[in-house]
Amino acid sequence: MEVNILSTGVANVASVVAAFKRLNCKTKLISDAHAVTESPFLVLPGVGSFQSGMASLVDKGLVDALRVRISDGRPTLAICLGLQLLAEASEESPGVRGLSCIASTLTAFPNTVASPQFGWNWLSNENAPVLGDGGYVYYANSYRMTECPDGWGSGWTEYGGPFVGCLQKGAVVACQFHPELSGEYGSTILANWLNDERRATC
């Protein structure tokens, strides 16, 4: 099984590569629109700001290819900033348009909690088959999505109020947490994403 990982220049992909190698997958780093379109499985990782992430996608000419791929429901996994880039906008970067695959705007955590959120937190599964029974996952985020968009399954975490930890629509999965850093449970989520039966139930 081959998993292609989008190299945007705003993510350290080494841990993502290692996670899929532990699942006996072949991995390849890609950075062009044709490869985005043709990848059997595609990972959109990301760290850093909403603005820098979108700027990288625009500069590499990847925006349209990603929008079409996600609209078509082809196997795509967005991680951390990757999930946020699927939204329309973020308070972090006013005036910057996201991929707009999801009707949502990201908001900052309230000042009642430390931000960024770094560390392990519980992820409950509402109706996202890849998440199984839920478990502890590793987060590193300052912004969050607080409503589940129509037509998506979701998993939720509590930190300064409930926020979306994961979204799933068939073969498209978006994780606010880092599954590649989330131990055995994270590996199970990745394996479920690669499994046709687990995707087909959503």
Number of domains as seen in the coordinates: 1
Number of helices: 7
> How many angstroms does the end-to-end distance come to?
22 Å
Class by alpha and beta content? alpha/beta
**What is the CA-atom radius of gyration, in angstroms?**
15 Å
What's the CATH H-level homologous superfamily? Answer: Class I glutamine amidotransferase (GATase) domain
Mean of residue pLDDT? 94
Largest sheet: 9 strands, mixed
Q: Could you please describe the fold and organization of this structure?
A:
The radius of gyration is 15 Å and the shape is globular. It has helices at 14-22, 33-38, 50-59, 63-71, 81-85, 183-194, 196-200; strands at residues 2-6, 26-30, 42-44, 76-79, 89-90, 105-108, 117-125, 135-141, 143-144, 153-158, 162-169, 172-175. It has a single domain (2-200), classed as Class I glutamine amidotransferase (GATase) domain (Rossmann fold, 3-Layer(aba) Sandwich), CATH 3.40.50. Strands 2-1-3-4-12-11-10-7-8 form a 9-stranded mixed β-sheet. A 3-stranded mixed β-sheet has the order 5-6-9, with no helix packed on it. The longest helix has 12 residues, at 183-194. Helix content is 28%, strand content 29%. The protein is α/β, with parallel strands linked by helices. It has 7 helices and 12 strands. β1 (2-6), α1 (14-22) and β2 (26-30) form a beta-alpha-beta unit.
Entry keywords:
nine-stranded mixed beta sheet; globular; Rossmann fold; 202 residues
Q: Summed up, what is this model?
A:
The protein is of the alpha/beta class and 202 residues long. Helix content is 28%, strand content 29%. It has a single domain, classed as Rossmann fold.
